[in-house]
Amino acid sequence: MQSILLVEDDLSISEMVISYLSKEGFTIVHARDGEEALRLFSEQKYALVLLDLMLPYLNGMDFLKIIREQSRVPVLIISAKDGEVDKALGLGFGADDYIAKPFSLIELTARVKSAIRRATEYSDSGSSSSPRSNIITVQDMTMDIDNIRLSKKGREIHLTAKEWSILKLLFTYPKKIFTKEQIYRSVWGDEYYGDENIINVHMSRLREKIEDNPSSPQYIKTVWGIGYKLGDFQ
Asked: Over the stretch 116-170, which tens digit does the pLDDT of each residue have?
């Protein structure tokens, strides 16, 4: 059974989430504050962390920054703070997804399973012992699919699992325009609930990492009213 660390100080929400996810086959370890969460995180490995932002003693954002220094475990933020600033801040610090309170337990479960599945695929694809590398080159950027490495002008660029999957999708189909729904279905492996801010934040972070000038992107182009595509390179 896969273990999930639930970091949530609201007991009514915690009991509801624990009951539902336990029936889905997960083992839930519950922390009511950030300091307890750090202790529990150090004691065992987890398939995913469900993290509230407003916590006693150590807030969720500080907890996230600390664990990101040592782990790539998928983190799904659950919080009543639904502003775009909080979303951008949370995802910018390394969260994989965001769901606002109140939320549907069905939607929460779908996002949990999707995040774990994507993290597993990301890890497995990087563990191949094959000496052959599947390489995609676009301008001065090189994507090594088999070894999960991205470099630009010889400099390695570190991406999160979601950022890698988005860029791989665009690199694999360089002429195709993808709607936000298509990107979400492909990368998150889940139904699209219309929360385009999640995709917008990931795109913004990805552009900051790969573009010379993120405000005038050349690799990831916005097709207004439709979605995104890879830049046109001769």
From this structure: 887 776 655 544 444 444 888 888 899 888 778 899 988 899 888 888 889 999 9
The tokens of 5 are what? 């660390």
Q: pLDDT for 99-118, tens place per residue?
A: 888 888 998 998 898 888 87
d(CA 176, CA 228): 9
At position 33, the amino acid (one-letter code) is D
Query: Rounded CA gap, 139 and 233, in Å?
Result: 7
Characterize the bridge pairing of strands 227-230 and 178-179. antiparallel
In degrees, to the nearest 5, what angle opens at C-alpha 85 toward C-alphas 167 and 63?
Answer: 80
**Residue of 49, 42, 91 whose CA lies nearest to 199:** 91
Phi, psi at 149, each rounded to 5°: -135, 140
Q: Token pair 């690199």 is at which residue?
A: 171
Contact 167, 159 (CB under 8 A): yes
pTM: 0.64
| Alpha-carbon distances of 58 from 80, 122, 214, rounded to whole Å | 17, 30, 33
Superfamily of domain 3-125 in CATH is: Response regulator (3.40.50.2300)
Query: What's the fold here for domain 135-230?
Result: Arc Repressor Mutant, subunit A (1.10.10)
Across the beta sheet with 75-79, the strand order is: 27-31, 3-7, 48-51, 75-79, 97-100
Q: Taking the CB of residue 181, how many other CB atoms lie within 10 A of it?
A: 15
Is residue 22 a contact partner of residue 113, using CB atoms and an 8 Å limit? Answer: no
Quick check: 138 and 131 in contact, CB under 8 A?
no
